[in-house]
UniProtKB/TrEMBL annotation:
A Pfam family hit: Pyr_redox_2
Domain FAD/NAD(P)-binding: 16-124
Comp. bias intervals (Basic and acidic residues): 262-279
Protein name per the record: FAD-dependent oxidoreductase
InterPro entries xref list: FAD/NAD-bd_sf, FAD/NAD-binding_dom
Gene3D superfamilies: FAD/NAD(P)-binding domain (3.50.50.60)
A molecular function (GO) term: oxidoreductase activity
Region (Disordered): 262-283
Length: 384
């Protein structure tokens, strides 16, 4: 490109030039002169360049120069993390911008010799796409959608609770081995087979009626990002198979539980600090003006803050589960008015609430639930 601007080009290496024979031949073909002397200073007049002075006092008249600045990392974080640096301290990355350290990405000027905003933005986009793809393709063990610290009040949580899965998982995480004939495991399998439609609709699991308790348990474990391993010791002359949670899964699950516990404790500390702040404010208002300050309605779990105030009566829907139980009672009352009455009421609820209502209905009034199912065999279609 430079040869299109001028035929008088000189490459100054400021000392010994480490150029291959092919590179020297290219310079010669382009008509570029090579000067290997060390540069002493630049000469200028009226703020304009006039020449380059070498340490041997020779002067190369020039009216313009192009410098190749060298890049250096201002932070040693990359090397501390184990990244490998290339020329000019550039962090080495692959085509997805991932370094030699799995899961560690470098973008922008730290991983590119082209110091341009457009290039930096593009590299960030490439890394973001790669990270998203990696996360979505990871094994379920790296997701753990839910574990023994049930914290979400949803129909999925309710179903797993009714299955007795929490108690089973607690034992398994503590290292307990099972054979599959334990009362707790058999009860889980029996409940699963009695509630095949509910489990399919809520957890999206198909439970065959001829499968073993261990197989059924394994499906719930897989959905939680857990897996089992087995051993077959000899007992009384026969081999007996024992199952336990995969060791790596247990370690990861425990880390997740510890993290969630820290999050809960941190949230509780913030709530306590807020309560103390409000109490101090109320005391100041009372001392200064002998009045109580206006109270702000508390933030609900769904993000609302009771705008419009409260009517002073006890709210039967003070939690998700209490709300579902309340709706279930209303549905039970509507059964005597016919299928359409039940269907109309369920249409006002969310899909999660509908499944919760039907599960509670089946639990507390199995005879009436059987009557409804007989009158409306397609009731599962209402749940969507």
């Amino acid at each position: 490109m430079l040869t299109g601007w001028s035929r008088d080009l000189v490459l100054c290496s400021d000392g010994s030039a480490e150029l291959a024979h092919e590179q020297r031949q290219q310079l010669s073909n382009w008509g570029v002169q090579l000067r290997k002397e060390k540069i002493a200073r630049l000469e200028h007049q009226d703020d304009k360049l006039t020449g380059i002075v070498f340490t041997n006092n020779k002067v190369l008249p020039r009216r313009g120069i192009l410098l190749r600045p060298r890049s250096h990392q201002h932070s040693h974080l990359a090397t501390k993390l184990g990244c490998k640096l290339g020329s000019d301290d550039i962090v080495q990355v692959d085509e997805t911008k991932q370094t030699l350290i799995p899961g560690l990405y470098a973008v922008g000027d730290v991983s590119s010799p082209y110091s341009q905003i457009a290039v930096a933005v593009a590299s960030g986009t490439i890394a973001a796409v790669s990270i998203n793809h990696t996360l979505t393709e990871e094994n379920l063990v790296h997701r753990l959608p839910i574990c023994t610290d049930w914290g979400n009040y949803s129909t999925s949580w309710l179903m797993r609770h009714r299955l007795g899965l929490r108690a089973v998982l607690t034992d398994l995480i503590d290292g307990v081995e099972i054979k599959g004939d334990e009362p707790m495991i058999e009860a889980l399998a029996d409940f699963s087979k009695r509630n095949v439609p509910h489990i399919k609709g809520i957890l999206n699991l198909t439970i065959p009626l001829d499968e073993t308790p261990v197989w059924i348990l394994s499906q719930y474990l897989l959905q939680l990002g857990l897996s089992a391993e087995s051993r077959r010791p000899v007992e009384n002359g026969q081999r007996v198979r024992y199952y336990r949670l995969n060791t790596d899964d247990v370690v990861f699950a425990q880390k997740v539980l510890e993290y969630r516990q820290r999050q809960r404790e941190s949230k509780e500390r913030r709530r306590q600090e807020e309560r103390e702040h409000q109490a101090a404010h109320a005391a100041r208002m009372q001392a200064m003006y002998s009045i109580n300050p206006p109270s702000t309605p508390p933030i609900n779990e769904d993000g609302s803050n009771n705008r419009g105030g409260l009517d002073g009566h006890e709210n039967p829907c003070d939690s998700w589960w209490q709300q579902v139980k309340y709706y279930a009672q209303l549905v039970i009352q509507r059964v005597e008015y016919g299928v359409e009455s039940v269907k109309e009421f369920l249409s006002t609820l969310t899909s999660d609430e509908r499944w919760g209502v039907m599960l509670e209905f089946d639990e507390v009034e199995p005879l009436k639930f059987g009557q409804l199912v007989a009158d409306a065999p397609d009731w599962v279609e209402w749940m969507g």
